[in-house]
Amino acid sequence: MRTYDFTPLWRSSIGFDRLFGLLDETQHRSEDTYPPYNIERLGEDRYQISVALAGFSQDEILVTAEQNVLTVEGRRGDKDQHEYLYQGISARPFKRQFNLADYVQVKTATFDNGLLRIELVREIPEAMKPRRIAIGSGAPAGQITQKAA
What we know:
Number of helices: 2
Number of strands: 7
Order of helices and strands: HHEEEEEEE
Shape: elongated
Largest sheet: 4 strands, antiparallel
Distance between the termini: 79 Å
Radius of gyration: 25 Å
CATH class of the largest domain: Mainly Beta
Strand order of the largest sheet: 1-2-7-6
CATH architecture of the largest domain: Sandwich
Number of domains: 2
CATH topology of the largest domain: Immunoglobulin-like
């Protein structure tokens, strides 16, 4: 894999440090594929993450949203030991993190038939939405100009 140096961007960009940090972290992270997951776009501002968690129960899974990071953790609580002749269903503990964009919030999380579904919505606050500014003509409002006689 090719590595990129983001130093020139750090020197000339203000407020994008989180983005460059994510890009840099992605370059150096080894890819773990467990547990398998999908990320779907359900609408313009709606998303869903589906995580396949075969062998886990609902109380063995922890979903946490903190600032712009969504964390899904799983730890099996097998009390009794099994003697497997072949174990193809992985039950190892895991911790998967998803970086969320600004204003993306977790709405619901459901667990059914070994599939964890997490719904996300991007809700931009009214103060951050674009607004139309009326353009007046002539003198600014509240000022009266008088002509000299």
